[in-house]
Fold each of these.
Amino acid sequence: HGLPWLGWHRRYSRLMINLLDHLAAALGPGGVIIAPEDIAPFGTDWRGLVSNMPRAVLRPRDTAGVAAALRLCAAAGVPVVPQGGNTSMVAGAVPSRDGAELVLSLSRMNAVRAIDAAGLTMEVEAGVTLRAAQDAARDAGALLPLSIGSEGSAQIGGVISTNAGGNNTLRFGNARDLVLGLEVVLADGTIWNGLRRLRKDNTGYALRQLFAGAEGTLGIVTAAVLRLARAPRQRQTCFCAIPSVEAALDLFARFRDEDEAALYAFEYISGAAMAVNQSYMPDFRLPLETASPHYVLLELATTRRRDPLRETMEAVLADALEAGVITDAAIAESEAQRAAFWAIREHLSESQRRAGASVKNDVSVPVAAVPSLLARAAAMLGARHPGARMVAFGHIGDGNIHLNALQPEDGDAAAFAARGEDLMEDVNAIVMELGGSFSAEHGIGQIKTHAFGQLRSAAEREIMHRIRAALDPAATLNPGKLF
Ligand code: 2HG
Ligand code: ZN
């Protein structure tokens, strides 16, 4: 067995050629890609912040293939970067050094292995996209209650490894809360099959929780058993104009007070974020008569057959309107309209990407502190980063705001980006004072490592280092991330 490309790549050392030859033999046809034009997309992150080409891309078809690949790479001491849909907001799934690492793509492991609609679980492979998993659950009459803007591309392995959050965290928790069982391959090729589908399994360390959110630094997730929910029988979705951030929290409290279990999503969009959308979203149409300084998109849902959900929605809105907590509202009258409301929310990230360079601050604070966070951040930006536009939106019901700063209009993108680290530090100082987190749902990747080193205690980092050293002593799994 020999590789046809042997000889055309002088940059490959003898060791690397040997390794790639063994990997090609282990992974079979299509299992190793090295042509520069084919590997290029695997080296650049979604935001275009980092571009480091891998030496090669590995595409195993099954768990045994992942194990074989990691065994060979460990023996050669070559680092491996696991990659799913490559939608990380913190460059967590691309190499940290140019030309020195291998990317291991989970894309070919894309089987939905089993769905238990009565037991409300599903077993999926790591390369299944979140949307494909949602669709499979829905076809079986259930709900996979995790929804994020990138769900069409994001894959289950990455969703779990980064403990993704999104729009239904409020009601169902983060990705880790949906993980009942996991299958993981360690750096040395050891396979841990923990694909149990039990609601109760109290047998020592919760290993599945250790790997969730570990950003691929402890092992590669190859399959998972996810907890499902019953499919809602009714939904009511509403777009509201609100006069202030305080009013958004007032509205949140009203809905929670009325029917907490029915509150599936409660999202905030600032007027500035909406304006960016208006400029960059194709076919943008505001669902309300007039523009507002703030908006909320909220969704109620219920599995109950006889539940006056629409009446609940209308009654709470009427009271809120009367109290001046909202100034306008539109309730979706069809599935198409509901989709249109959500499209506006889910396009914010893409619109902002098109608008130029930005510094993303995915932060959280106790929910009651959100108004103070936004006010203090706006004042700080005005004083210390004049021209930077604050484009805030996010999961306000969780206290998680994407407090993003966009480069000045007609400003210089490179000059703005050069001050990005300072801006992030200034925002994080406010966040820490309010008892918050500098990364609420996007993780650390290679963009927030500096903040992680500065803002987490020595003890906390030391615990993580020791866990990492125990499972991956040579630190060959996703190097340059987290630490
Ligand atoms: C969202 O909530 C994502 O849309 C992306 O977490 C946030 O682009 C962002 O900053
Ligand atoms: Zn988000």
Amino acid sequence: MKTYKIATIPGDGIGKEVVPAGQQVLEAVGAGSGLRFEFQNFDWGGDYFREHGVMMPDDGLDALREHDAILFGSAGDPHIPDHVTLWGLRLKICQGFDQYANVRPTRILPGIDAPLKRCGPDDLNWVIVRENSEGEYSGVGGRVHQGHPIEAATDVSMMTRAGVERIMRFAFRLAQSRPRKLLTVITKSNAQRHAMVMWDEIAVQISREFPDVTWDKELVDASTARMINRPASLDTIVATNLHADILSDLAAALAGSLGIAPTGNIDPERRYPSMFEPIHGSAFDIMGQGLANPVGTFWSVVMLLEHLGENEAAGRVMQAIEKVTADTSLHTRDLGGTATTADVTRAVCALVSGGV
Ligand code: ATP
Ligand code: MG
């Protein structure tokens, strides 16, 4: 029996509800597919911070390294500054394991009442590739003369040729693997005339390696309107760290709910474990009440299985998710329903273990 070692990091808030639900789905699909998952849970996050003064231990990456993949919940605690929780845990793992490609599929699942009424399910089928290691979130910058009238601060968007080349190549390759072979490169080189111009030039250079991929360039501001007015004109999208961060939240909302959307932080070279997580945050307003929609985590489990090469198992979980979203009696409150996290989890587990 094939065995995979999975690290689970529920983190904070509803992460503690959706990650155990995701674990149950992995166990259920494993039982039906002859796969075994060995889980190791890490209780890092806000509570750990209160006790130890750090979000995760210094040797935390070493503990994760031997795993095949990581299933992450959410980091964020209303009593700890956001940049502390983010940099202290999620970004520490993303950067430590050089998970430079952040991949966010977006689709309107069956039964979901999405806001674009004139848009059919086939008109919105995107994958957003976010540069996940540098750019606007490189951490380069500084603050001087704090509290004085001449105070100044910078956040430098640092892009390296190697960093841009690898994310462009990843995006072109992903576009090539999808039926439409279509890529849109998001830019802002009209206003940002150094790094973004290099970004554009590298897109042209890498495109020559993929003559069968049709691609175009779009300004980030214009792309928000295009996502709403002409969603079917987009398929694979590649953007910088900040641009894709914003566009993928818009994409998730257009697909119906933040609670559904998944993401993978991928090390395409497979030197380190990749990390899969729902895109929503810790949502303290609904925690502990069984209101969290676990579908974003289940879809992240699909991505995790695909990354492990377990496409049959991934397909079974995706089919189960679509059956469950198609049934409005299994919608959680964010989708206008009354089902609980446990109801949805039970239904998906029953479908994956019984064969869909
Ligand atoms: P963070 O600070 O970690 O980003 P947050 O509290 O801002 O967390 P978000 O994920 O940004 O939470 O979500 C905003 C709101 O959307 C939440 O407060 C919650 O009401 C709702 N929401 C988010 N995820 C889910 C989910 N999985 N199921 C149900 N509702 C959700
Ligand atoms: Mg938030």
